[in-house]
């Protein structure tokens, strides 16, 4: 199968490319930075095999060039996006362009070239919902998204639904729940797991909001399930991809601090964080049934693997 992965140099994208290749697929990657494997548009800039292109999916010409010159593609995984609620506030221009215009560009090309699409959404779409987050909730209950990033991801899902009605396009949506793990290098807008691990290792303070619950999903388990879609693609499906290891944020911080031996005085506890869903309890029965989703790594083991990787990556 010929597969394109957008955001192929990202945390999930890199591992997804490797998994898909190991299954015997021909995989092409795009991301917003220059990397080996590029070939110039006007002049040949490399003697390497053309396996990658710099591409901003928010620019139609750039993604059109890839799909029409490097294709045809049977399947596209759209991992490319601006991630995170606070990133979406601080860099809203890039967020709206990449997430909304970027997906619309891909959909327009999907309508023309008829490839299948897997689009990365987010657990953020469940917004203020307080119950068990089953996929059908979004079709049955009016949800108030809590921030611009969440709004963008729900708008993406509506873009996909409209295209399916108008043009019979075939797309699967995946809603990721707090994916973390090795390969997630630090910046301030990363997952809470990554941020806490980095801060503990570098003696930096953190803020822990009490009474907030999450399901942390180790990246290897997440990627394996997502790659399985290439072998069992059911158009129109939305899948929760996440762990049943439900925990509060206090427990996550304590696990990290216990393993690193960091100074407990670095932790400041507060009662509430604005524009943030308090409890995210997922139901992943559908991904278990149809995508063979499995959890092979506990929270404790995943935290240790992440910290050990960070120690090596940052040479600590």
Notable characteristics:
alpha/beta; Rossmann fold; 11 helices; 15 strands; globular
Question: Helices, strands, pairings?
Answer:
Layout: E1 2-6, H1 11-22, E2 26-31, E3 52-54, H2 60-69, E4 75-78, H3 85-90, H4 92-113, E5 116-122, E6 132-133, H5 137-140, H6 148-167, E7 171-176, E8 179-180, H7 192-201, E9 206-209, E10 213-215, E11 217-218, H8 219-228, E12 238-241, E13 246-248, H9 249-260, E14 267-270, E15 281-282, H10 285-291, H11 299-313
Parallel strand pairs: 1-2, 1-4, 2-3, 4-5, 5-7, 6-15, 7-12, 8-11, 9-14
Antiparallel strand pairs: 10-13
Tell the overall outline: globular
- Helical region count? 11
Class of secondary structure makeup: alpha/beta
Order of helices and strands: EHEEHEHHEEHHEEHEEEHEEHEEHH
The neighbouring-strand order within the major sheet is 3-2-1-4-5-7-12
CATH C-level label: Alpha Beta
Low-confidence stretches: none
Q: Assign the CATH superfamily.
A: NAD(P)-binding Rossmann-like Domain
Describe the sheet with the most strands: 7 strands, parallel
> How many separate domains?
1
Return the CATH architecture: 3-Layer(aba) Sandwich
Distance between the termini: 41 Å
Portion in helices: 40-55%
């Amino acid at each position: 199968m010929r597969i394109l992965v957008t955001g192929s140099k990202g945390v999930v994208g890199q591992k997804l490319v490797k998994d898909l290749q190991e299954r015997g697929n021909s995989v092409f990657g795009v991301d917003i930075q220059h990397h080996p494997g590029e070939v110039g548009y006007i002049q040949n800039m490399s003697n390497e095999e053309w396996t990658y292109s710099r591409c901003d999916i928010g620019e139609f010409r750039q993604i059109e060039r890839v799909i029409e010159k490097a294709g045809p593609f049977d399947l596209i995984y759209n991992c490319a996006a601006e991630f995170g609620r606070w990133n979406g506030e601080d860099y809203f221009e890039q967020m709206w362009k990449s997430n909304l215009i970027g997906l619309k560009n891909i959909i327009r090309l999907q309508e023309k070239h008829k490839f299948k699409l897997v689009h990365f959404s987010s657990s953020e779409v469940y917004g203020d919902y307080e119950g068990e987050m089953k996929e059908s909730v979004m079709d049955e209950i009016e949800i108030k998204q809590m921030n611009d990033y969440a709004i963008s991801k729900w708008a993406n899902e509506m873009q996909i639904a409209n295209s399916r009605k108008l043009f019979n396009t075939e797309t699967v949506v995946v809603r990721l729940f707090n994916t973390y793990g090795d390969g997630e290098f630090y910046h301030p807008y990363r997952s809470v797991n990554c941020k806490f691990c980095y801060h503990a290792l570098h003696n930096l303070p953190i803020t822990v909001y009490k009474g907030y619950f999450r399901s942390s999903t180790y990246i290897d388990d997440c990627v394996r399930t997502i790659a399985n879609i290439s072998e069992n693609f059911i158009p129109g499906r939305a899948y929760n991809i996440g762990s049943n290891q439900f925990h509060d944020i206090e427990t996550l911080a304590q696990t990290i601090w216990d393993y690193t031996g960091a100074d407990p005085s670095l932790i400041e506890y507060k009662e509430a964080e604005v524009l943030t869903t308090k409890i995210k309890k997922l139901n992943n029965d559908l991904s278990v049934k149809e995508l063979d989703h499995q959890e092979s790594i506990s929270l404790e083991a995943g935290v240790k693997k992440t910290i050990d990787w960070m120690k090596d990556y940052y040479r600590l």
